[in-house]
Amino acid sequence: MKKMSATRLIVSLAVVALLYAAAWWAETALGTNSMLITVLKKGAVYALIAVSMNLLNGFTGLFSLGQAGFMLVGAYVYAVFTIPLKRHAAVYQYYNGGIIQFELPLLVALILAGVVAALLAALVGLPVLRLKSDYLAIATLGFAEIIRAVVQWDSLGPITNGSNLLKTYPTFASTKILGTTVLFPMIVAGVCIGLILLIINSTYGRAFKAIRDDEVAAEAMGINLFKHKELAFVISCFFAGIGGALLAMFQGTVQANSFKSAMTYDILLMVVIGGMGSISGSVIASYLYIACSEWWLRFLDNEQFIGSFQVPLLRSGFRMVAFSAVIMVVVLFFRRGIMGDRELWNLRLPGRKKAGRAKQ
Amino acid sequence: MSENVLRLENITMQFGGVVAINDLSMRIDEGEIVALIGPNGAGKTTAFNCVTGVYEPTNGAVYFHGKPIAANHPRGKMKRMYAGSDPEKFLNMQTSMTADRITKLGIARTFQNIRLFKSQTAFENVLIATHMRRTSNIFTAAFGLNYKEEKRNREKAMDLLRIVGLEDVADEKATSLPYGKQRRLEIARALATEPSLLLLDEPAAGMNPQETLDLGAFIQQIKRDFNLTVFVIEHHMDLVMGISDRIYVIEFGKLIAEGTPEEIQNNQAVIDAYLGGNDE
Ligand SMILES: Nc1ncnc2c1ncn2[C@@H]1O[C@H](COP(=O)(O)OP(=O)(O)OP(=O)(O)O)[C@@H](O)[C@H]1O
Ligand SMILES: [Mg+2]
User: Fold this and answer.
1) What is the pLDDT of residues A110-149, one digit of tens each?
2) Closest chain B residue to A222 measured between Cα atoms?
3) Which residues of B fall within a CB distance of 8 Å from A275?
4) Which residue in chain B is spatially nearest to A195 when comparing CA positions?
5) pTM, whole model, 2 decimals?
6) Which long-range contacts (CB under 8 A, 24 or more apart) does A24-33 make?
7) CA-CA distance, A74 to A118, in Å (whole number)?
8) Could you tell me if A353 and A295 are in contact, meaning their C-beta atoms sit under 8 angstroms apart?
9) Which residues pair with residue B19 across a beta bridge?
10) Does the structure's ipTM exceed the value 0.90?
């Protein structure tokens, strides 16, 4: 691990602080409902989820497709435990107000969302991580589908509300910081991504990368494969759980059926577009992805006229077609993604090529 | 009586119908340099893999300082297919340690087909090998509370790079180094696990004669400096004869000779194996 110089660390932190200030200012100036603020919030949520997936797929080389399942768990844990008691009768109208007769403080519920997802991951990982990694993809995908069905199971209705919506729990509107809604998701995501970075830059992160590079050699160097895979899996799912809870906060309602495998593929695409093994790449790609799908490519869904000429093809749904085409181009021709496995803060500045390296 | 550092007892390794090693028994004593030679495909690397936990032998046992690290007898489908010897002798034995546990006990190795961590620098490759003997946990490591250990490990990794003469390429990608340097990097990485027994699989492969000569002296040097016992597979006969205390020769998975370099050089079975064999 190349040690980051103190100046680079300070500059990076200053840039992050500036971005937060700019986001705050933007919401103050443009209003909470502007498209930019929506993208900033949703982008932050997905950045965290993409980074958590990258920890597993990009840094440890474990191809897992369970992200949506663990997000669902996080979202439900958060929603179930934060719906105000006086709303229970209305939300759980088909289940006599549900059986959970208490509510947790928001931050406690947020952390619990991660913890429950992590515990589930530990259980799922126990059999699956001993297998070859191809099985991991299938097993985690299966797990995600199973959890989605289980949550909607009628017998669990008094807790999960069956296949009905969970709603009226606190959203970003109730976590205002300095009068804006945008800071909370950005700060939570920022702190979580910071923690993941610390792990990746520690001796454990090096062990993860060793496993990714060569399992046989890693094991020969004394790295317990199962223990480290399980660790990476649990950490990744902990943060996916928190990401799921944030997504629930963003949406205002939660319904198990929206956590389909397509959601996992979206996140996988963000990871691939950003670069497998690059945290900053995942963050940038998440924001780009969300901005495109929510905002910049929206016009493709509406009929457009240039003078009296109606632009062909533009109609509802075309946005997804164009989007898919972009993604295919990226996957086919820019397989290393935006960042490859480099990080924004480690990039050599153009004029300083020589100074960056001791030799050659 | 002092225990052998390493003892192989009737090891047979059978892949499907292929018997790669057949009834191999050998012992290595403290402080020895022992070589394992034989024509291509004789089963040398397979023997290393059985010792280091990459493969589970089909039959037989491996002891490290008297303690079994691998023991097995033909089971399941292999019971019918088994074509080796002595399947009854180990019926009551079964030990199957994973490679990382064996490394932790003090056996380190290099690989014939170099297996460096390709996305990492030379320095990081060595540093990763210090992970095993950590005292930190994920929390202390993430928050840098293990900074003393981390600093020690970094110094140790740098020292090892210096010892193998790679300190000037510490920050180069491991796989961008020339062959000979990659092999030395593998040795540094193995040493970072603090072994008492070092297994070298064709350390001179791809080296020129001068490098090979230097390597011999280097192996003897690290053996002394790190108090090692060395078990080496090598095709360069000058190197083998120059540094080995004893030599084992296998052909088609079977032991055909054992002895000092002089004895081996004059052994008719060995001469036949090499002259009649497919060695280049
Ligand atoms: N995983 C495996 N599956 C099937 N056969 C194997 C396996 N590993 C080794 N073999 C076979 O076992 C035999 C011995 O191979 P091994 O690599 O041990 O030879 P070697 O003595 O190291 O040869 P070389 O000098 O070429 O390195 C070969 O016939 C090889 O094909
Ligand atoms: Mg070999």
Assistant:
1) 999 999 999 999 999 998 888 776 788 888 999 999 999 9
2) B100
3) none
4) B142
5) 0.91
6) A24/A178, A24/A180, A24/A182, A24/A183, A26/A182, A27/A180, A27/A181, A27/A182, A28/A179, A28/A180, A32/A173, A32/A180, A32/A181, A32/A182
7) 9
8) no
9) B14
10) yes
